[in-house]
Amino acid sequence: MQHTRSPFRPIPDICKEVQEETRKHMNQLTKPTGSLGCLEELVIRLAGITGEKIPDVSRKAVVVMCGDHGVAREGVSAYPQEVTGLMIHNFVRGGAAVNVLARQANAEVHVVDVGSLLAEVPEGVINRKVRLGTDNFAERPAMSEEEATEAIRAGIEIVGQLRQKGVQLLAVGEMGIGNTTAGTAIAAALTGQPAAALTGTGTGIRQEGLQRKIRVIEQALEKHRLSAERPLDVLSKVGGLEIAGMVGCFIGAAQERIPAVMDGLISTAAALIAVKLDPKVLPYLFASHLSVEPGHRVLLDALGLEPLLHARMRLGEASGAALSFPIFDAAVAIAREMATFADLGLPDPE
Ligand SMILES: O=C(O)c1ccc[n+]([C@@H]2O[C@H](COP(=O)([O-])O)[C@@H](O)[C@H]2O)c1
Ligand SMILES: Cc1cc2nc[nH]c2cc1C
User: Fold this and answer.
1) Which of 64, 65, 83, 263 maximizes ligand 2 atoms within 8 Å of its Cβ, making it the mutation to test the pocket?
2) What are the tens digits of pLDDT across the range 277-305?
3) Ligand 2 atom nearest 86 alpha carbon
4) For residue 3, what pLDDT band results from cuts at 50, 70 and 90?
5) Ligand 1: residues whose CB is within 6 Å?
6) Same domain, 123 and 22
7) Ligand 2: distance of its center to the CA of 87 in Å?
8) Would residue 317 show up in a list of annotated catalytic residues for this protein?
9) Does the entry feature the keyword Transferase, yes or no (predicted)?
10) 56: three-class secondary structure by DSSP
11) What is the secondary structure of 214-252 as a DSSP string?
12) Are residues 160 and 86 both part of a single domain?
């Protein structure tokens, strides 16, 4: 497959030597080889990313990218568009599910308005608004490639600033009424799977709405002549501003050597776009949970990643990613604190 050269800063390789050191260390711990499953894989991958044999990911942040969607006017969501703006206020007041889960995990929350319909961006929100919502992609492209690129750059810059502040682990999520339609259209365009197999009920639409949503996606795929080989075109034609912002977060995290935790369907669609733009993003990505949305499994398969949790969640706003943070802490603590066979006076199994 031919990949377009990324127009963004180069992404460093992961550190294979340190990763190997950590793998060896995990095999010296007092347990059967590989018996801690995902915890072992996690800490080995984190070591490769951070270049530290015992990685430090104690400073954690959650980024919630927010934007509104013209396609919501097609009646594809169970909730009105105003809920995006209301939830932005809720995020900065600390009352949303993600705020609770982030507090549990000792993580900070950063809320970014990349394209909501709010005329005034509330205090406490990072204002990187590219425009007031996207156009309805059932009628015309959601946005221009320039606008998508501006939102990507916002994500990259925000992650760069978080790195400066010492952030070591990043969850990337979103809020935007209508965005499961956009996320599913991206999934269909990038994986070639039929819309009917990928489309779910999002915030909870009924059967009639679901059929309408499938039709909207099918017609958009045809109308915009999308190709998996043109990820920026896909993003601008049927994506969203918060989705583009997340693409930037994933690219930025890889540039800064920060492990980046994906959330549900929409966050993972953004991650797949980032990987299509630059395959070197992939080793920096972690799958937190498996969303109820059927397209999510297909996207994770396309990335070749297994989720840590099967929690039957379908909220978005980085809630699943924040919920997975304590597993990262547990994995590092195992590497740091467990005794080795040598500590017990026994030979190494290797
Ligand atoms: O992350 C997911 O897999 C997910 C699944 C269903 C719904 N959501 C959230 O719900 C909103 C989009 O749902 P909808 O029905 O308006 O397309 C948006 O704010 C997402 O964060 C998110
Ligand atoms: C209330 C509400 C909260 C959300 N958080 C993320 N997506 C959401 C969608 C709705 C409708």
Assistant:
1) 83
2) 999 999 999 999 999 999 999 999 999 99
3) 1
4) very low
5) 77-79, 174-181, 202-203, 263-266, 291, 293, 296, 314-317
6) no
7) 7
8) yes
9) yes
10) coil
11) HHHHHHHHHHHT--TT-HHHHHHHH--HHHHHHHHHHHH
12) yes
> Residue 6 pLDDT > 80, yes or no?
no
What is the tally of structural domains in the chain?
Answer: 2
Average pLDDT of the chain to the nearest whole number = 97
pLDDT for residue 320 is more than 70: yes
Q: Is the pLDDT of residue 85 over 80?
A: yes
DSSP string, 294-347: HHHHHHHHHHT---SB-------TTHHHHHHHHHHHHHHHHHHHPPBTGGGT--
Report if residue 1 sits inside a domain: no
In the block, residue with structure tokens 């195992």: 334
Helix 241-255 vs helix 179-191: angle between axes, to the nearest 10 degrees? 60
How many residues make up the chain in this entry? 350
Per the CB < 8 A criterion, the answer to whether 98 and 173 are in contact is yes
Could you tell me if 105 and 175 lie in one domain?
yes
Q: Could you give the CA distance from residue 223 to residue 217 in angstroms, rounded to a whole number? A: 10
Q: What is the signed CA dihedral for 325, 182, 79, 323, rounded to 10 degrees?
A: -10
Q: Ligand 1 centroid to 179 CA: how many Å?
A: 6
Cα dihedral 203, 206, 211, 212 sign: negative
| Residue 212 phi, psi (nearest 5) | -65, -45
pLDDT band at 262 (very low <50, low <70, confident <90, very high): very high
Q: How many whole angstroms from 97 Cα to the centroid of ligand 1?
A: 13
The interface pTM score, or ipTM, of the predicted complex is: 0.99
Cβ-based neighbours of 5, under 8 Å, separated by 6 or more: none
Q: Write out the residue range of the structural domain in which residue 26 sits.
A: 16-55+335-344
Mean pLDDT of 328-349: 94
- Band (pLDDT 50/70/90 cuts) for residue 5 is low
CA pair distance 82, 127, nearest whole angstrom: 18
